Structures are given as C-alpha cells and as structure tokens.
Amino acid sequence: MAAQPDGPGAGTGPSAGVGPSARSRPSAGTGGRAAAPLLVACALGIERIALRSGARGAERSLPPAAAGRVTVLRTGMGPVSARRAVIDALAREDLRGAAVVASGFCAGLTPGMHPGDLVVADETRGPDGTTPCTATASLVEAVLRAVPGRTVHTGPLIGSDHVVRGQERTALGASGAIAVDMESAATLHAALDTGRRPVAAVRVVVDAPEHELVRIGTVRGGISAFRVLRAVLPAFSEWHRSLLLPRR
Asked: Which uninterrupted H or E stretch holds 157?
C-alpha cells in the first residue's frame, strides 16, 4: 500500500552516534520518569551520516522533555553483523528497554517505485520468521509529516544476505514483500530476543525494478535517497514519543 500526502511536495564495523542528548531526559506524559531511549540501527557509514544529521534536526524541533536519548548505531553489512551489533548495544545499561528502528536504504520490489520513496514495514520477514512492527499507522503519519510530498509504501520488508537483482528481485516481489534489505529482519528479531520493546523498520528506496543502480552515490537516485534519509529521523522521534504517552 502506498500513501502520498496532499500538497507540495562506509564502513563495516559497528559504531554508535548519540542524537538529542547524552543522557535520557524526563518525558512529558511519563510522570517525570526518564524516557526510554531510542536505538536507530543502520548498516553503512553513509546511512549513519544521513541519520545523525537528522538526529540534530530532531533535537532542534522537539521540546527538551519530548523524548529520551537517540542513538544511531552502525552495525555493519549483512544479517550476522546486524544481529551481533544490536544484541551488544542493547546489553548496555543506557540502552536497556530501548525502542528499536531499523533504517537505511533498500531495494524496492514493486513496479512503480522510485528512488527516494519510503518503505514503512508492517512486518519484517527473514530466516528466523516474521516480526510484526509496532504502531505502523502512527509511524506512517509521522513519516508523511517529516517528508511531505514523498510516497510512502507500507507492507512486508523481506531480508536477504546478499544484494538482489533481476529475476531474484521479481521472485521476492511475487512473495508479497514490497522491499528487500540485508539487515532489518535480523535487527528486529535480535531486538525482541533481548526483551519486549517497540520495533519498527523504515527504509528509503535507493533502487527499484525500473531504476536499478550500479553503486550508491554515483547516480541521481542515490543522491535523492540520501536526502530523504537525512530528513526522516524526526519521524522516528515523533513515533517514539507517541508510544510514551499515557493511554486514555
């Protein structure tokens, strides 16, 4: 399913960058308790650069007590690296109980997708099974506000341990998945293995069935995807903040 608003429109080893604060801060609606942190996991250095610039934007746009700490974690490429890095990160005292978002670039599987479109997963699929995502509708609304004019697709995000092209891409699309990447399924499965927590996956399409790329950053589609990824992180903070509000 695709939503479009009205109106105008690299390294391999794990490393972390801190967004709005070096400490968790009290959140409005949490009774003065320190807000749960948010961990945003990505594979590539270029993804981390984009997301960390978005974290600085989120700091400027949110009131000081709006949400907890945001940590951007570069896991390295592939499901094995992602799983190991996420488990290690969530073992840290300051990240226990963190909500987890898998983000970065992906390959679109649905005809009509374009570089710069966004994918908000309602579930991830991988060798370990299917992982439902948390509060997808709220996250889609937040993404649409963060990047007005961009098309947002919602559906299953499937995992692979290698880059897929051609007939393999067609076969994955026939399974019902709308996009594929190498880390999201492993990231969310690992996060839930360490304890119950909100999880989500938001990816930016860098190539699509009619727009296959040779290398990220060498063509217009890669540049477009980078700019969108740079703008989307405030939506993760808004989604996270909504989960902390008391139920009525």
From this structure: strand 152-159
What are the residues whose beta carbons fall under 8 Å from the beta carbon of 40, sequence distance 6 or more? 19, 51, 55, 70, 71, 72, 73, 100, 101, 103, 233, 236
Contact 240, 135 (CB under 8 A): no
Token representation of residue 179: 């996009």
pLDDT in tens, 7-38: 333 333 455 543 333 333 333 344 444 568 99
Of the candidates 145, 157, 131, 168, the one whose C-alpha atom is nearest the C-alpha of residue 6 is 145
At 165, phi and psi to the nearest 5?
Answer: -150, 170
Within 8 A by CB and 6+ apart from 212, the residues are 165
What does pLDDT average to over the chain? 82
Higher pLDDT, 168 or 187: 187
Q: Write out pLDDT tens, residues 136-154.
A: 999 999 999 999 999 999 9
Please report, for residues 115, 130, 165, the alpha-carbon distance to residue 171 in angstroms, rounded to integers and kept in the order given: 20, 18, 10
Q: Are the beta carbons of 234 and 146 closer than 8 angstroms?
A: yes
